[in-house]
Amino acid sequence: MKNLLKGDLAFISAQDLLEWFESRATTGTVSLSGDDYQANIYLKDGRIIYASSEETGRRLGQFMVERGVLNDSDLQQALAESQSAGKTLNRHLIDIGLVTIQTLTNLFNRLVLQILAEAFTCRSGSFSVTSPLPASVLGGPVFYASGRKLSEVFSQIQSAAKEEAIEKLNRRLGDDDIRLPVLPKVAAQLRALLEDEDTSLQSMTRVIMSDQIIASGILKVANSPFYASSGPTDSVNLAVARIGTKTALAVVTAIELKTMHLPDVPKEKLETILDNALKSAFIASGLAMQCYLDPEQAFLGGLLHDLGKTVILSVSSGCDVDSDILDEFINECHAEIGAIIASRWNYPESLQDLIRCHHDPITAETDRTIVVLQLVDGLIEHGPDWQADPQSLQFVGLDQASLQDVCQVALQAVGEFSTPV
Fold it and tell me: I need a labelling partner for 349 at 20 to 30 A (CA). Which of 32, 105, 161, 271 fits?
């Protein structure tokens, strides 16, 4: 074994090192070693053909077990048999038919990309380059997609990192022990009352009046510009009758959601989601009134349509997922998770569908309430002066001026609603 080069990664990064070897068409083994990192990268004519690491989860056998291709007992038996036969594990797995060459190659390519991704972030430690390549590497049976330039490898690393992060989040979301938010206590009591055909308005009022903050919130909404056309009231019973029992339930849910505590979700992000949920609920309700749609359905839709984001943020805790990838995943998946929450809270399928499809352009072609929610999202993201799509406004029967007027009134109502008692 011939030593070609040694050095310190503090002076040249692994990425720069490999680019230099590529330009010189070097064949050999690049060994990287740091306090918490060790890997070997194998080059042939400057191109990466193989990589290995002793880090936990970075050995191919462990990698296959984690992804359900092998179980642990099969792996241990295959390891023992391959050592006894003097073969590499890769070769033995194929020889005994436990995996196909295609499956092994696909998994190996993914593993190599993860090893390389970690290597390219290593900023301390040492490197050495030796030649020739080990026979175990040259003998295959799998190689990294050789012939690719490093620029293509870097692009693949980014794609693989995204796929790995999304797979990790999906596994966490699929766990049986995932904890979805539960319907808050008073809201749950009101929900049960609403499902009983014999429930009286007085029964709901008694539940609401059992909590001073909730009772005050109901009065604030009833006396807001949306509902106070018949004058102010200090009667909780009249307030519930004025805004409707479903809206009362939605308002109670909103009040209790404001105090939701999810320890795995960053406090600032949770506050932003819940604050925007409250604004969305009031704006959606106001727009629904203008469009002759169901304001109670719109209020609940606005309140709950982004609640799935809290679940994703919770399961992402400790996953070490890039923030851009996490944001993209949240945007793609929060609606479906929000619909699941609404189902768990026993809300009707119509509301579940509204939450599930609130970003769906095809459904929006026929559902005016979904378009209302999409307009609400635009106002929340860009502010009251946002210029909405004229076709969307025409479809729901609004103009730009009325959209902005409703938004201003709704935000004023939110401010009054949020003022401490």
Answer: 271
What is the pTM (predicted TM-score) of this model? 0.64
Cα dihedral angle (332, 263, 304, 253), rounded to 10 degrees? 180
The answer to whether 217 and 276 have CB atoms below 8 angstroms apart is: no
Residues 6+ apart with CB under 8 A from 148: 47, 48, 156
β-sheet bridge partners, residue 130: 3, 29
Q: Is the distance from CB of 57 to CB of 51 less than 8 angstroms?
A: no
CB 129 within 8 A of CB 5: yes
Radius of gyration of the chain (CA): 29
* Tokens, residue 4: 């070609």
Cα–Cα distance for residue pair 264/249, rounded to 1 Å: 27
What type of residue sits at position 73? S
What does pLDDT average to over the chain? 85
For 25, the token pair is 């068409």
Helical H segments across 265-367, by residue range: 267-290, 295-304, 308-315, 323-344, 349-356, 361-364
- Give the DSSP H/E element, type plus range, for residue 42: strand 37-44
Sign of CA dihedral 398, 401, 407, 412: negative
Q: How many other C-beta atoms are found inside a 10 Å radius of the C-beta of residue 167? A: 12
pLDDT, tens digit (0-9, with 9 covering 90-100), for 311-353: 888 888 877 777 888 888 899 889 988 998 888 888 889 999 9
Smallest Cα–Cα separation from 222: which of 88, 214, 169?
214
CB 205 within 8 A of CB 275: no
- C-alpha to C-alpha distance for 188 and 253, rounded to whole angstroms: 9
CA distances from 214 to 23, 73, 143 (A): 70, 57, 64
Per the CB < 8 A criterion, the answer to whether 35 and 55 are in contact is no
Measured in whole angstroms, the distance separating CA 127 from the mean position of its chain's CA atoms is 37
Half-sphere exposure of 312 (CA within 13 A, CB side): 28
